[in-house]
């Protein structure tokens, strides 16, 4: 025997005493469906830079190796294997190798002949990556009904630590802000999902970054958090760093994730720190992609559909737990051909790619292909098959969300004549989620404008919502504008502002 595998969280370190002695790290993919390529170094180089940061009460630890090998996450369950590896690196002999194999340390195994590290497991599988807890407990409190920091727990939070040592399958995430600037984060809410259940919630208040400390009354009215509630809380930078260490490569889901991760990005920029590297999915986009027939796609609405208990909406920890429940419900009740509870695989089933936050970039989720997920069970699947399959259903769901209503509302002649829309001829094109286009037409008409279905020479305002490419209505409006027609082209945010709507959370 000249080879031994040490299974850590999301990685396998293989030590070989064959000539030449070497160490290799196989990273188990957690945010994509294929594993990461192996990295190898000489055993002496790996040992020269080896160090271990043990996991704490809440956050995971880390094993660093020399020779430009990637580091590995270490949790309470994988700490014995990490320590055994360091002992072996300190004395890399055949006798030490045999002793390490004979101790029966969890996570230390002798590979079978011809077995490569990738054969030992794949973090993209539904069971999640091999490994341990995020620090062993939800926060060390162990108090009944308590969250990670002793705050009231959201629905689904256990009163004691989980009885096993698995890494979370994924995290759900939410933030609350002090004012209209997304970067003014004052509360992080996180829910850890293990074995298909919400296992723990984390409620982390913080002081907003310098320059963004102003609390708006509108925001306080929504979440109830005041300056005095966070005056003794740690600064945003400390909590953002803690969030990055907790997540550490685990997929994250959020509801209307664009808001939450824009908030994280802007907060980090204001605090002068690097953003955590995060791969994320959005339950709001998932629900729209599935084509759910619901009143709206707000979090409380979807949580009710998912059968989740009532929750304290706009408490970040409670919202994160509700988001996790919605994510699990969507993955179970609206599966693809290969059912999964892994956000990476489910996004792929939907024909989508995970969003990414890294460096200074926020990359939104992208549509990459046809969805294999249906909006219902057997009957809906059969109906989709008769009408052209999943691709046809995708197209119908997409167009149904943006199609114009049949009846144009009459404009309000008694509206405020000083309003920006009074007397205008307004046409909408594209997607205006989360608002129904018929509802927007009604509000535009109430403001004293004439609503048009198409772009004509009478059109004075064309509002272009997001779409895969420039729509024909927008192309025609730009052509008219180039020819001298007095026509303004707005984006959806301008319209929402004029109508007094909010285009981003709170949802």
TrEMBL record:
The keyword Transmembrane helix does not apply. This is Exonuclease domain-containing protein. Residues 149-158 have a biased composition (Low complexity). It comes from the Bacteria. Residues 129-148 have a biased composition (Gly residues). SUPFAM superfamilies: BRCT domain, Ribonuclease H-like. PANTHER family: DNA POLYMERASE III SUBUNIT EPSILON, EXONUCLEASE. GO terms for molecular function: exonuclease activity. Residues 97-171, 370-400 are annotated as: Disordered. CDD domains: BRCT_DNA_ligase_like (cd17748). Pfam families: RNase_T. The keyword Heme does not apply. Gene3D superfamilies: BRCT domain, Ribonuclease H-like superfamily/Ribonuclease H. Keywords: Exonuclease, Hydrolase, Nuclease. Residues 416-507 form the BRCT domain.
